[in-house]
Amino acid sequence: MTHLLRETLILLKKYDIKPKKDLGQNFIINNNIVERIIGYANVDRNDVILEIGAGLGTLTSKLAEHAKKVYAIEVDPKLCKVLNDRFSTAKSVEIICEDVLKMSFPSDFNKIVSNLPYSIATPVTFKILGAPFRLAVLMYQLDVAKRLTAQPGTKDYGRLTVAVYYKAEVQILEKVSKTAFYPKPKVDSAIVLLKPKTKLLRVVNEEFFLHVVRDLFSYRNKMLKKALAHLFSRKRLKKEEVKRIIDILEKRNISPQKRIYTLSPAEFVDIANVIYSEVGEAFK
After folding, report:
1. In the CATH hierarchy, which fold is given to the domain comprising 206-283?
2. Model's pTM, two decimal places?
3. What is the rounded CA–CA span in Å between residue 226 and residue 66?
4. The domain 3-196 belongs to what CATH superfamily?
């Protein structure tokens, strides 16, 4: 039995905690993985770290050894009790007992380092992309990590891929076996590096762009022209508007015959920009 597994079991028993599947509670019990996460993030005394899903504080403890400050976010009241007791004298650790999806991030962090709760990994990623940060080192389920880095035309390619590609450089640093966690999840995981891009594709309206990407992927396997026809009908826009937009897109070398899941991120940007310029708010 590893030191971290023994420590985890002691804390769970002491605080009468049963890990909740619906909250994605799988605690890291491999110290080598924890150390590598710290190394990948290159954490030093100038860093203010945001940790999402602090759990029992295993990663928090190591982050606090290296960073200037750690904001440890945890939604589960029982786990918050563990964190508050464990770091009661640690001036560099601030425990935030809130739902990360409903709160505002602190304004002064520069890095995000987390073993993300599997249950909210996707919405948390969208929230992270809207925040300013220098880099993020995050643990994901392996299937979600593959979606982050997928290529157009593959089964893993989707809305999340396009949104992340638009905002950040993504790299899978290493795969992590399910045996590195307690309780052991059904799937393997991966450590992922996100770095904000310094130069973004030219999006006229970012909120509108993400809105269009979401809507189009609801027709993932349809051809672009049919997906637009369905969308415009749903939004009570005239058929003539669809034809006009398709004509413009063809002039930009975007074939209306392409399936939604084969469109590149740059093509999604062009499509969103054209729709915005032609019908704008009426599309929402």
Report:
1. Helicase, Ruva Protein; domain 3 (1.10.8)
2. 0.94
3. 54
4. Vaccinia Virus protein VP39 (3.40.50.150)
